[in-house]
Write a structure and sequence with these properties.
This protein is α/β, with parallel strands linked by helices. 39% of the residues lie in helices and 17% in strands. It contains 24 helices and 22 strands. The strands form 4 sheets. The protein has a 7-stranded mixed β-sheet. It has a 7-stranded parallel β-sheet with strand order 12-13-11-14-15-10-16, sandwiched between helices. It has a 6-stranded parallel β-sheet with strand order 17-22-21-18-20-19, with helices on both faces. A hairpin with a 6-residue loop joins strand 2 (64-76) and strand 3 (83-89). The chain is globular. It starts with 16 loop residues before the first helix and ends in a 14-residue tail after the last helix. The structure holds adenosine-5'-diphosphate and magnesium ion. Magnesium ion binds next to helix 12. Residues 305-306, 400, 557 line the site of magnesium ion.
Length: 704
């Protein structure tokens, strides 16, 4: 038997070869045998459990296995829409299996009248159970297969990869990779520490993560691998934090000048809330010290973060620096620009807006103005990070609603001056500090925990389809009073696999039930051209349209105080923080506002809990806490982690907050005793720490 190394090229593992190796690298970043072993299943299914068709509901597990006989086959659709359908039946009911790709291969293997074990993801189309691209085995094959625990890993894959490396091939490759390196696995965590935290040996953990011997062994394996990953991460973050605190290369904003003072005395249309004042003091203190500020500002929707950002930017201008503010969407950038330009009118501050839609002549002028220092405040979208945007002296950067920005994008702002500017990241989705550091690198946290006075709490109710007439009646009544209404859909078009309301259909039905001219409806969704979106927003903002039919593109920031009703269709489809963001689009003026959550009849326990929570509270912080709890127990496939400061393979900082906290304390303790981890027994830990530095040469301590 040949022994291999973790660093060996994956193409030499039997079952891989050149073509598959290329795909593995391109699609999931697996280049070596070690990468393959670190490609962990994101879920496991119990292959011993066979469901009867009738007992499957859309609230059940995400993957199921059934045993059913083929009663017939059919073809449907043309060209790229062509699909192959297989009708199956067990003693309890019937289902349809659908293939869109690899039809030739499947049709050869399907025998009408024969019984198969079918394994896949159930979905309901109307009331019919469907599975797309399930795995098939004959009953004989199933009986010949023997596994220890019946638990089978499902590996993350991509559309492209799954064509060439299906679930079975993937499993074989992992088996072969394991056999090559199983005796080379070195435990990086010192024995004493393993004992202290009750950690399974690393080799056993790798074995059980891929080939679980029992569900308990799997649990321990996951715990161990998550622990290592988060410990490495925390060692990394804490080491960098110590370094940042020991340096003093931040720009110094030494005084509060005329612009800030005049704004405060003459322009501010209202009294700052206590929380706003406190945060401004925190920012002033940071920026006066010579440390480089890296701060996360958390504040619920409507808590007045923009104003804090603006006043901080004015402070920068007072001290001879430029400032910029980056918003996640064109819509929001233009809205911020309009607000800010209005507020600083008459002050000696020059403001400009730059987005992807800025015309080339204007763009040239703005770029010149920025480079020469003739523009003090630049508001914009991603366009701000392009290389051709060269500031004369950028000192302060605001990033609004950060969750829409990737880390690489943010990091490029650093290169805009010879020293890194101060950074303020604003979010309406509160997260615990440890988690924030994992998501955004080393940073300090400020909180606005107070809403401006006089806001009326939004009333939230949960309706199902039978209340639609009542809903329409209510919308009409509000419009008759001069108010405006949002109706938000999870999908733009009808979907084959998901039974949710869609915008296209919804728009038709609203047009039918709300006749012109007393009801003007306008549309906004992500597939529209920016100019069309903006025009649609303008109509709504100016009150020319009464109903805005939209997708969640309007989730962040959009500000139309006269809108008082937010209807969210198929609300069970949205996450809690997204629902809260959407609700935040109303309740911005003096009028009583309403949020109406429309849902299907059948709700999973988790959806139910989310929607109930929305009805119970308007407090974003409480909702965020609950969200953590719900997600902690639920379905985690890693997708929501994109945009994080650090790549994590197995730990989910949201779900694994306890391990995160534990490893943070461990890291701080270790670094106090051995700051560079240079003691011999810490060499493995140093390796864990350095795993997180490989992603480009970005200095993550400087990204927030
Ligand atoms: P968010 O924190 O969601 O970004 P905004 O900054 O958009 O909130 O503020 C929401 C609204 O509250 C704006 O219309 C703003 O002018 C107003 N506002 C901000 N601060 C105060 C305050 N201290 N008193 C009264 N209204 C305020
Ligand atoms: Mg905002």
């Amino acid at each position: 038997m040949i022994m291999g190394n973790f660093s060996d090229d994956i193409k030499f593992v039997s079952g891989v070869g050149d073509a598959r190796a290329k795909l593995l690298e391109k699609e999931i970043g697996v280049r070596t045998v070690g990468d393959m072993l670190n490609h962990f299943p994101f879920r496991y299914v119990d292959r011993k459990r066979v469901y009867s068709i009738a007992e499957i509901t859309d609230c059940g597990p995400a993957y199921v296995q059934i045993r059913a006989r083929v009663t017939g086959v059919a073809y449907a659709g043309e060209g790229r829409k062509r699909r192959f359908m297989v009708f199956v039946q067990d003693s309890s009911g019937s289902a349809v299996l659908v293939w869109f790709r690899g039809i030739k291969w499947v049709e050869k293997r399907i025998e009408v009248g024969r019984e198969y074990v079918v394994f896949g993801r159930p979905a309901f189309f109307r009331t019919e159970l469907r599975m797309s691209h399930p795995e098939l085995e004959t009953v004989e094959q199933l009986l010949s297969r023997k596994e220890e625990s019946g638990l089978q890993g499902i590996y993350p894959t991509t559309e492209k990869l799954s064509g060439a490396v299906g679930a079975k091939v993937m499993y074989r490759i992992i088996c072969n990779a394991w056999a090559l390196v199983k005796d080379q696995i070195v435990d990086l965590v010192p024995e004493a520490m393993r004992r202290q935290y009750g950690l399974m040996p690393l080799r056993e953990a790798y074995y059980n993560i891929h080939f679980p011997q029992s569900s308990e062994a799997l649990r321990q394996a996951q715990y161990r691998l998550k622990f290592d990953e988060l410990l490495g991460l925390q060692l990394n973050i804490q080491a960098r934090r110590t370094e940042r605190m020991s340096k003093s290369d931040g720009f110094v904003f030494g005084w509060v000048g005329d612009i800030f003072t005049t704004f405060y005395k003459e322009k501010l249309p209202f009294e700052l809330t206590g929380a706003q004042k406190r945060v401004l003091r925190e920012i002033r203190r940071d920026t006066a010290t010579g440390l480089q500020m890296n701060r996360l500002l958390q504040g619920d929707v409507g808590s007045g973060k923009t104003l804090v950002a603006l006043m901080s930017m004015l402070l920068a201008v007072d001290n001879g620096f430029q400032a910029c503010m980056m918003a996640p969407t064109e819509l929001l950038a233009r809205q911020h620009f309009a607000t800010i330009a209005r507020m600083v009118e008459g002050l000696d501050v020059r403001v400009a807006v730059l987005t992807g839609a800025t015309r080339s002549r204007e763009r040239r002028e703005i770029l010149e103005g920025i480079a020469r220092g003739q523009i003090d405040l630049l508001i914009g979208t991603h366009s701000l990070i392009e290389d051709r945007v060269q500031f004369l002296n950028l000192g302060f950067v605001v990033i609004d609603e950060q969750h829409r920005f990737g880390v690489e994008q943010r990091s490029r702002l650093w290169t805009k001056n010879h020293r890194p500017p101060h950074v303020l990241v604003m979010t309406a989705t509160p997260i615990p500090r440890t988690l924030a550091m994992t998501l955004y690198g080393d940073l300090d946290v400020s909180i606005i925990d107070e809403l401006p006075p006089g806001r009326k709490p939004i009333k939230t109710v949960l309706y199902n389809d039978s209340a639609r007439l009542r809903l329409f009646g209510f919308m009409k009544e509000q419009i008759a009073r001069g108010r405006q209404v949002y109706v938000v859909y999870p999908l733009i078009k009808e979907s084959e696999t998901m039974d949710f309301k869609d915008l296209t259909d919804g728009y038709e039905s609203i047009s039918r039930d709300f006749p012109l001219p007393q009801y003007v409806t306008t549309i906004c969704h992500g597939q529209m051209k920016p100019a069309d979106k903006e025009e649609s927003m303008r109509q709504f903002k100016e009150g020319l349209a009464h109903i805005m039919v939209a997708t969640s593109v309007i989730e962040v920031g959009v500000d139309v105080p006269n809108a008082t009703v937010m209807v969210i269709e198929s609300a069970e489809r949205f996450g809690l923080s997204q629902l809260h963001q959407l609700r935040g689009r109303v309740g911005r003026g003096g009028e009583q506002s309403y949020c109406i959550l429309m849902s299907g009849y059948k709700l999973s326990r988790e959806s139910r809990a989310r929607l109930d929570a929305m009805c119970e509270t308007n407090d974003g912080f409480r909702l965020a806490e609950l969200d953590l709890k719900l997600r902690g127990s639920g379905d985690v496939n890693g997708t929501q982690q994109s945009g994080m400061a650090f790549d994590l393979k197995i730990a989910n900082p949201t779900a694994d907050v306890q391990i995160l906290t534990l490893t943070r304390e461990a890291a701080i303790g270790l670094l106090e005793a051995d700051p560079d981890l240079s003691q011999p027994e810490h060499h493995g830990l140093a390796e864990l720490r350095d795993r997180h530095t490989t992603r480009e040469e970005i200095d993550f301590s400087r990204i927030s």
